[in-house]
């Protein structure tokens, strides 16, 4: 570990992150955005460049021969080529299909593999997926044959790849088509999984591995790390990703297909406009001929989102001018997240109990970009061990201008692992009323979800300082804190109650979608509902919704104006130094 003279924020980019944020992201002046795993933010100059492009050129529907159509077609193919280059994917060995997002890419692979297996065998394919998979990957099992395999750990995948002869415990036949899928990075806690599995699967000598294709969900990974597909022999057969997670704009995704696996995609049953050379209607005479000139032409149904694809060119250009390359982004975010993690685990209550329960995978190491991305999943606990409700945490975060993510995060396997929830417990929670996003925070003494913070290219040390300052609100510093007197306020007293004009009004908070009503189902009833702020013991159950709203607005931190300390430099991606 070495200590630089300048902060890590100034080391990786052509200009300082403070200057980038001031010019390109003015909305971050009063907002701490920590949900880059959901989507990162687009710079102002990108939108300006797109606007200039659209107002300076006439772009027509590419399914025509007019000059405006030809221009759109030409620009689309240019962008396709640029994106393959961005991921070091040689067009000789790869094709790129534009789709709405990573989920659409995953669904396209699943549907085409199902159709392919119908032509080849009995209409079903074997499916194996890693437990860290996003819900969109898990959903593929509904199109596969019954009894899909869920690998609960990296070691189970390793054993499956290395097992020879008849030692395999999974129901795979040598004549059967199969798909192995996993995320390059967990969207729950940022742990990065091995990228060599697809190559090892392809080089396996086992007969049942020969017809198994690999699908890599790279949506979370590509946002802050370089994806290198230069070695076609080791690359996945299919890569799903979303460009808005990488650039913030446009809302677009891609499926990168290894051409050697392209024949699977040609067996897809459905066809849309622009994907066929001839269609004959009728009952007995029904026939169609799918386009064979290129894989993407046969898979991009209907009119492509040509304005979004054209806008992607500006997004890439501006991203490169601001950040240089993805290795820079990886180094920047890796350093920041290492500092955040190290500080979070040091937060302690008066009795030594940890404030944050961080759900770090044993195989992930903050500060090492090869194994860990810039995402932290955690929950907050009180000194007595009780959980701070994630909904209260998020309400207080929003009041303090901090945007993050809470809940199940569309990662059922990761949540089950983090919260130690068995399948029977999950089913019991569902029977007790737990639904996605319905606000039930705790059942039977266990949280139902977690809190997630994730960093992006434009994150700064100021973001880290603000979050840490906010987390300190939950520290209990004394054993016996006197109970706060419960006051009832009139509507006219709101302005007198609020210590700052910048605090949110009731109407502003209501329009953000916050629900401050305390529901009995959200708590196990074993401990009194009190304000989660460490130095406050106000009983929440005695307050009306508006009174609770006013009370939460009191707990507003003082946001730091500037960074005050440098941070150590850690390996950004490839080594363990």
From TrEMBL:
Alphabetically, the GO molecular function entries are: molybdenum cofactor sulfurtransferase activity
Gene Ontology biological process: molybdopterin cofactor metabolic process
Q: Where in the numbering of this chain does the Aminotransferase class V domain appear?
A: 32-467
- Identification of the protein by name: Aminotransferase class V domain-containing protein
The organism of origin for this protein: Heterodermia speciosa
The taxonomic lineage of its organism, from the top, reads: Eukaryota, Fungi, Dikarya, Ascomycota, Pezizomycotina
